[in-house]
Amino acid sequence: MSPQSSPSLGVTKELCSWIHGLRLDDVPESVRTRAKYLILDGLCCALLGAHLPWVEKAANAIFAIEPPGNSVVWGYDKKLGPLPAALLNSTEIQSFELDDWHMLAPLHSNSILLPPLLAAASQKKSNGSPALDGAAFLLSTIVGYETGPRVGLCLYGGHMLTRGWHSGTTFGHAAAAAAVSKLLDLPKDVIEDALGIACTQACGLMSAQFGSDVKRMQHGFAARNGLFAALMAEGGYIGIKNVFEEPYGGFLSTFGQNSGKEPPYLVNELTKGLGQTWQSDNIRVKSHASMAGTHCTIDAVAKLQKKHPEKLADLRTIASIKIEMSEAAFKHGGWKAERPLSALGAQMSCAYVAAVQLVDGQVLPQDFHQDLLDRDVLWALVDKTECFHTPELGEKYEQRVTLAFEDGEVITQTLAAPLDVAPGLSNEEILEKFRRFTKGIVDDWRRDEIERLVLDIENVGDITDLEGLLAGRTANPIE
Description:
CATH 3.30.1330.120
């Protein structure tokens, strides 16, 4: 489905027209199917993260300041209003760096989309509106999968990380507003208001990654604020018109300032290929519990372990570790890790996760238990590691890991991309991840029912049935 072109139709209105007119039958079956598996992965991450220490800290603080409401807090026996519920449920999805990311315009779509969509559905039902069905939920999620990355591509995607912006939080407000607007079936001019209200709230500082708790919550700001924007627009509140292309104080002109690119931003990326090129094809799912930019490091180390098992049998013989990467990956994950380190800082550090892979042979949630973060064997390796920006490796995922040994031998491995990117996890592998990571976190019957409902979601009559399955206590995976 292509938007109508008109000399007076700017990209914001063009996007809104497409969002309003899109129907589930317009979406290829492969895209619809993939979206269901992506949704399942997002819920897996939420169930896994609900009772991690830093999430419980956020939950306890929010429960203390917010009154009860109608929206389920996943993994708890509590309900809040839609806005705090969206914020907290998003924090759960983002809690352990295991959730999806877009490989061209980095953002974690599920943490931005699933919480506000389900919160909006429960709020509407509590107000006496007809139940919103699974087909509408699926279509709205796909709208969000399309919108967020397109906003990011307008700003050169990962280049925003290089500049110090938390890219997903910056791109994500519009995605949440677009998705909720679609779920509420808002007219296209009201969708434009929602986008205008959402975009004026967008921000996110990448310095949050250096050990703060707030890194886990920043995508939740986009989820909450995008939901707020759509609900305000539904109530008649007027947002910024033409918010993306407005030359003075518009979203792209403002965030594109001093980008170092020519042109500073790419306005046409917002609507380029709408209904023909599906951005969900570029959403990837993680198999390692760490920031996406560290995954090539992990996979390169794993390949060296497979090729040289005898050489790596005694890690004390390693004299130095050199990790080379692109500029964005270097600024995101190549910083010098120092002891002591929080779980968040550890998950953001290429040096630290390389050590974890060398010692544990994996990088999974249990490897970041508080009692394991300060192991001498890890820090001996971290202290021998240096990270470098190597321009000839390009601007994407390519990395090189080189290990030098005390006997003078050197082994090296270069990868163009991590396995999570090329080829990426299949639908079957996502399902296996869901089953494996939720084992023991929720009862088997509950896990199986969530799986059944999500994979048949277009036939669900009331999407709040899904939230009912997400309610109730879940286990802490690192206890």
